[in-house]
Amino acid sequence: MAHQSTPLIASQIIDGASEWAIMHGVAFRQADNTARHCPFSIAPMTMQRTVFEHLRSVTPLISKLINNVSEDHDFLQSSLGDVAKADPFFARLLALHQQAHGDIENRLTPARKPLLLMRTDFMEDRQHGAKVIEFNGIAAGMAPFGQRATEFHAFIKNQWPQVYQNWSEDSQSIPAENHGLEQLAYAISQAAKSVNATFTPTNPDTEKSQPTFLMVVQENEDNVYDQHLLEIALQQQGIRTLRRTFEQLSTQLSTGNNQRLLLEGVGAIDALYLRAGYQYVDYYSPEQDESVCCHTLSQTRLFIEQHHVAVNATFSQQLATSKTMQMLLTMMPAEGYARWGLDLEQAKLVKSVLAEMKPINKETIDWFNRQADKQQWVLKNQGEGGGHCVFGDDISEKLQQLTVEEYDAWALMQRLYPHEREVPTIAVRDSEQTLVDDLVSEVGLFTAYYDGKPATQFDGYAGYLIRSKPASENEGGIHSGKGILDSLALIN
């Protein structure tokens, strides 16, 4: 619970901390082009080192599994058809996937190279330990904030050691290293350089092109500074960076020799990251008078995948990181993972962090209404980000409203009840401090895979993002909910 009282930390410290955040790009853009800092905690959360090491070892295996599932096109099409009937956006994604890869009888091989930049979100349940909340296939953008939050707490500890100690859960805890921004930039730059090298002329007299990275962004987005931090890190690795919306790309892309992707006025593109593309509105253009919503801009995305360019996220990756795929993998026996290259021990490791999930059908609904402890479950649809979850007693009401056709778009998942932080903390939002005495945290681990192989200097692991929120709040997004940016300190 958050409450305001007499300032507990001197205002000059809060001002200094807020200015550090803005100066280091930990901010959102306002409508008038000013910036406001991201909300943050004044000291890190703590976790047992063994728990974090377990997550650190299992997450690259999850990444390997999802990467291999995403390239198993027959499995995607045969296992996700029912969801497509229940969810129009999912139907569009699956149809685009089929256009790119052909149907099961006539398999096509699109030229794109898959670059999986993934964040796996965990919560440490009081009873069941750390469990996966969801897989995010379009999430690299937050890695810069994750690394910056770790640096921010190091700054507080150095500048105001007493303040840091006062609000730390454990004075012996050691900050967990976090290179999320650097490692994702490394993975993207390696992918861009690899594609670029494929086209590098062998004639020494011919000019070589600079590896070029394109970020597909939403128009007038306020969450842009983390994107710019990633671009700066890429520029430092010798990569040229560009930003375009789907609307702009719909008239600016063309095909060069050997399926090279060309951008008007720029030249060849080597790597492409979709910051947009996970909701219908990203493809909607008021200028296009379309009988089928969003056809033109989604065909632009398809056009990209038909070229020799490193792409995150591909249609396949978006389908493979969906809630339904999470449910199918959760319900599958560990032996089933052998299809995607995991041995039994690796499969059991992955299974150890998957929370129970149930499909929505008549039997599940009857069971839920008659027998289930409703507070132990959460109802989720296919949506990304906040606002797509139904909790507790509201679930029965929502299930009653669903038509049979809509069932497959939803799933029940074991609700996680994380540890509340043992020491109250100070949350800073808009340079105002608030005491929060029931803070809980979500831990997101970043991984990167390129063309089927780990793509970071840590065997696929990249870094982490901690978002904390009052336990009483259901929406914990930094951007859209009551969440605050946080970091991690480990205790033995």
From TrEMBL:
<dbReference type="InterPro" id="IPR014049">
    <property type="entry name" value="Glutathione_synthase_N_euk"/>
</dbReference>
<dbReference type="Pfam" id="PF03199">
    <property type="entry name" value="GSH_synthase"/>
</dbReference>
<protein>
    <recommendedName>
        <fullName>glutathione synthase</fullName>
        <ecNumber>6.3.2.3</ecNumber>
    </recommendedName>
</protein>
<keyword id="KW-0436">Ligase</keyword>
<dbReference type="InterPro" id="IPR014042">
    <property type="entry name" value="Glutathione_synthase_a-hlx"/>
</dbReference>
<feature type="domain" description="Glutathione synthase substrate-binding">
    <location>
        <begin position="212"/>
        <end position="320"/>
    </location>
</feature>
<keyword id="KW-0547">Nucleotide-binding</keyword>
<comment type="pathway">
    <text>Sulfur metabolism; glutathione biosynthesis; glutathione from L-cysteine and L-glutamate: step 2/2.</text>
</comment>
<dbReference type="InterPro" id="IPR014709">
    <property type="entry name" value="Glutathione_synthase_C_euk"/>
</dbReference>
<dbReference type="InterPro" id="IPR004887">
    <property type="entry name" value="GSH_synth_subst-bd"/>
</dbReference>
<dbReference type="InterPro" id="IPR005615">
    <property type="entry name" value="Glutathione_synthase"/>
</dbReference>
<dbReference type="Pfam" id="PF03917">
    <property type="entry name" value="GSH_synth_ATP"/>
</dbReference>
<dbReference type="InterPro" id="IPR016185">
    <property type="entry name" value="PreATP-grasp_dom_sf"/>
</dbReference>
<keyword id="KW-0460">Magnesium</keyword>
<comment type="similarity">
    <text>Belongs to the eukaryotic GSH synthase family.</text>
</comment>
<dbReference type="InterPro" id="IPR037013">
    <property type="entry name" value="GSH-S_sub-bd_sf"/>
</dbReference>
<keyword id="KW-0479">Metal-binding</keyword>
<keyword id="KW-0317">Glutathione biosynthesis</keyword>
<keyword id="KW-0067">ATP-binding</keyword>
